[in-house]
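USER:
I would value a second opinion on how I read folds in token form. Give me a protein, with the fold worked out from its sequence. Write it directly below this note and I will take it from there.

ASSISTANT:
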Amino acid sequence: MKIRFLNASDAKLYRDFRLKGLKESPLAFCESYEDECERTLPEIADFLAPVGNPPEKFTLGILSNHDGLLAAVTFERDTRRKARHKAMLSAMYVLPEARGQGVGRKLLNAAVYKASNLDGLEQIHLWVLHAGESASGFYQQSGFLAQGPMVKGDLKIGDEYVDAQYMVRRL
């Protein structure tokens, strides 16, 4: 396994991975499978291009020894002057066959490590959805704390409402 920044040349690999995740776990993401299907490969390539030096916006991936994508997460620092002290993690996903092997923890730790080296960054935020098996316990074990009350009915997928919780990890 290797952890690396994904880039424009990974657009097809990432798109296939993302669509698989959205189909397998639709209640775990704010985005829908249908919306993601409409994104073009050039749009995904632009999205994957790291921004900044060192990167303040990036998508990290864990690849298998055969270059298949096992897990990915996106990090984006806030660009507003009054909010440069914080950033967001989003779109974290680990393939079902890679779960329970520490892959998600390695990926999250790598993202936090890279973020902690950014000058002036103090907080990393994320939204965790609470549907079925929630990832909130995983994030809590990694140092993230709930920030405020649960947001009831944050998303509506078909006739089902999904609650969400805002979490933060202070660096």
About this structure: The CA atoms of residues 66 and 113 lie 25 Å apart. The helical segments are 11-24, 33-38, 41-48, 103-116, 136-141.
